[in-house]
Structure to design on (215 residues):
């Protein structure tokens, strides 16, 4: 059995409307698809989104083929339940990656840089078939491969990690504090409010992971 982490990079014309909306909105960091299925041309997913629900909701409220959705805000983002029609040529990502022995391991990370990251587990031959079959407008990179059953997923988004790293290097977490949030914002070339939000979300996810007992 083999595990691989892959990144799918989409050309702009190949993005779904929701993924395009995530890429174009500064208020949305990423979406983590936690599970889903497609039955009779209707895809049902549940996900967690790092970002502002008021920035995301128009993507589904006005989305063509959306049958129903429900958004549940929480402290660090919101949970989404979504059912939508795939269309005559649409295919579920989970179905597109389906092979006899392959499992797609959640979460599927939908990122604001026009990429998606996910983990696949299965027999090498079937994994190789997936890696060699890439839809038009999509390129595929293998991020890691292991000859064992394992998964890999980031606790924080890349942008949150960048903010946390900058804050640490600038002495934001030193006692006494060497630099404030203004210095972090300047390093990230963003507004103070944006830097503060990135740190708050990143800190919250790291603390949650630590207190839940994960290494």
């Amino acid at each position: 059995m083999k595990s691989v982490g892959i990144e799918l990079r989409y050309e702009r014309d190949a993005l779904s409307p929701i993924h395009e909306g995530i890429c174009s909105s500064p208020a949305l960091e990423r979406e983590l698809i936690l599970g889903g299925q497609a039955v009779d041309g209707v895809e049902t997913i549940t996900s967690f989104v790092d970002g502002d629900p008021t920035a995301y909701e128009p993507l589904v409220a006005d989305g063509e083929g959306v049958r129903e959705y429900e958004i549940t805000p929480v402290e660090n983002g919101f949970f989404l339940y979504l059912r939508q029609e795939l269309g005559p040529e649409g295919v579920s990502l989970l179905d597109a990656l389906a092979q006899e022995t392959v499992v797609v391991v959640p979460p599927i990370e939908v990122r604001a840089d026009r990429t998606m990251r996910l983990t696949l587990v299965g027999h090498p031959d079937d994994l190789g078939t997936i890696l060699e079959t890439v839809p038009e407008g999509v390129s595929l990179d293998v991020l890691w491969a292991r000859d064992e059953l394992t998964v890999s997923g980031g606790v924080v988004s890349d942008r949150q990690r960048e903010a946390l790293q900058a804050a640490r290097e600038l002495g934001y977490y030193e006692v006494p504090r060497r630099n404030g949030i203004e210095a972090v914002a300047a390093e990230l070339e963003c507004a103070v409010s944006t830097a503060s939000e990135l740190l708050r979300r990143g800190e919250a996810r790291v603390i949650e992971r630590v207190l839940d007992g994960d290494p």
